[in-house]
Give the backbone structure.
Amino acid sequence: MTDDADDLIELYAAANAIEADRLVLLLADDGVEALARATTMSSFPASGQQLILVRGVDRARARTTIDNARREGVIADGGDWLGR
């Protein structure tokens, strides 16, 4: 089964909500629409992993943006790639 270009895919698991919000903004600056979704429910907004979702068609551009952010220290490299 292949991803439809407009379907949302889970691309990256950010370490916390703060990094997820930063990634959503960085991706938007690069023209990639992204969403962050919590993997757990918690009363602490910065706890738990946050999934970054993008459209299938934007996967490559989003990966490049996130790779650059990790390499440049904009976000920590503690997140995980999903569905490589």
Remarks:
- The mean pLDDT is 88.
